[in-house]
Amino acid sequence: MSQTLTLRRPDDWHLHLRDGAMLRAVLPETTRHFGRAIIMPNLVPPVVSACDALAYRDRIIAARPEGVDFTPLMTLYLTEQTDPADVAAAHASGLVSAVKLYPAGATTNSASGVRDFDKVRGVLEKMAEIGLPLCVHGEVTDAEVDIFDREAVFIDRVLDPVRRATPGLRVVMEHITTANGVDYVKASDRDLGATITTHHLIINRNHILVGGIKPHYYCLPVAKRESHRLALRAAATSGDARFFLGTDSAPHTDALKESACGCAGCFTATNTLSILAHAFEEDGALDRLEGFTSLNGPAFYGLAPNEVRLTLTKHDTPVTYPDKIDTDDGPVTVFDPGFPLFWRVS
Ligand code: DOR
Ligand code: ZN
After folding, report:
1. Residues where N6-carboxylysine occurs (predicted)?
2. What digits encode the pLDDT tens for the residues 247-272?
3. I need a surface site. Which of 131, 193, 250, 335 has the fewest CB within 10 A?
4. Pocket-testing residue among 12, 14, 16, ligand 1, by greatest number of atoms within 8 A of Cβ
């Protein structure tokens, strides 16, 4: 008898879809399993205004495979020029679900992000007033801070002061990678949640660096030491509703990843659910998978969970996924968890 697990259809609370040929190639990988996704605005140029978000949403909808039920939840890229009134209007019309904060220089296409947090105070206050969440890439960018410490330092130097100065601001700490991030979320009694990626539940920094450099495991925030991965696993599988899935699935072509200066990002849209079922089963927490993938995120965003169900079946033989997705820009490598997968979406 094969084992089955039925979940409400999952959502992805942090996703990069890009644009053009890449968008068309990667979108079906997400719509196959997910009902909604928070769409990252770090295009070139970024999605900074309601007008940009509307046009991008139309391009995503046009690229959606025929007949699929998938809703892109749009975000605005916060800059020092962002107009609080534009943000409020975009929220009131239902167009945007969150605003994204990139510290300038923190990651891919973050050059237009925030340098001086005082300059975005008005926007953050408006967001606190209207209940619009701020999605945060939580890393400092100071050259003297070690890359493995950048998340922990961000919490102390930026996130905590911003939250204290802006009561009521709802914040999602995105793609947390440290026990410090987990502890900070757990210590807060309100207005704070965190997304955890699939890959940060599976790899630590050894996977990137031992036995040769593995560019397809390089992402930002970079995976940390094993104790941090275990803290993330414990948080994700704990049932604590403040933690939910945001894959940060981030496609880059192999040419851009396998380079002297490779891009950051792991592409996990294709096999995320098989990997998560494996991880939750390993930790004796299969009964908590639905909370992480399908319930906690909507609850944070004040949305109903999806009504449609999805069934995972555990097979005796490994499930095969393509190694790469073909795009008109070149191949994109699918994240390799490094072990066989037996859970398949049926
Ligand atoms: O690894 C990452 N890739 N981290 C980010 O923050 C951005 C993303 C991308 O856009 O490629
Ligand atoms: Zn991201």
Report:
1. 100
2. 999 999 999 999 999 999 999 999 99
3. 131
4. 16
